[in-house]
Amino acid sequence: MSWSNSYRWRWGLRGCRPGFSAAPFMGAGVALGLGVMGLGGVHRWSSPDASVSPGRQVHLPMQTIVANGMGQRSGIWRHSPTSRMVPMDLLAISGSLRLDSTNTALLRAIMALAPADLRVTLYADLAGLPPFDPGLEPEAAPDPVQAFRDQVRAADGVIICTPEYAHGMPGILKNALEWTVASGEFVDKPVAALSSSPSASGGEKALAWLTQTLSVMSAHIIPDISQPIPFGRSRVRPDGEIVDPALAGTLRAILDGLARAVDARTQSGSKP
Ligand SMILES: Cc1cc2nc3c(=O)[nH]c(=O)nc-3n(C[C@H](O)[C@H](O)[C@H](O)COP(=O)(O)O)c2cc1C
Prior knowledge:
Rossmann fold, binds flavin mononucleotide, 7 helices, alpha/beta, six-stranded parallel beta sheet
């Protein structure tokens, strides 16, 4: 095991890209490392103990660590699955308004699986968006629309999970997306597009429609991780508790893939 691999292993950076070297950060890292140890905050890519509530951010002990210049965006030292040293904000949007929605439950499960350096926020006001009216564009957007646009714009990446209604995505989700067509919040935005239904198809027709819409809006859909999730209702409870262990692996891979796509975009300088 090389020195940098050893460092990565010791500090829980096993998710780092093979090319990532922790060496440049060791000088500051020695002092910081003592602080990390004191707070008991060694990061693991699969953090099982997130405290999650609907519509709120995931808060974990690691996020309380304040670092020097490199992690200053929100004062959080970022141990990334890649080499990124700032926190990453992901916005999760469920296409279902149903209280016991499987699609929302899947997003809650993703929130609970998120490591300390990924902040996943569940967008909670899909029903508060008025019907899209292009006549109001762009300055007179109602407050909920502006808030939605702001949240999408601020997010480093977006996860959308949609049910299938009559072989399409719900009108309420399409409505939300329509509000961003002219204002362009989804342009180049890394997106994990998901669907779920109780059937074996997992809502793949709704997903096809969703990806078509996102594509025409120039979103950066991540193909490897965008997928239907079949038999959703029997694999996750409404509160986000995962019943099927295989699902946890799938959801972790989605988070990992999205985080890597965000990092790749940031490093290439094409972050929107
Ligand atoms: C009006 C309506 C239409 C539906 N159409 C489809 C469909 O075309 N394909 C499908 O797989 N499921 C269909 N379903 C079942 C949904 O996939 C199922 O209710 C799912 O759990 C909804 O997602 P949610 O649990 O996140 O609310 C439909 C449900 C409703 C209420």
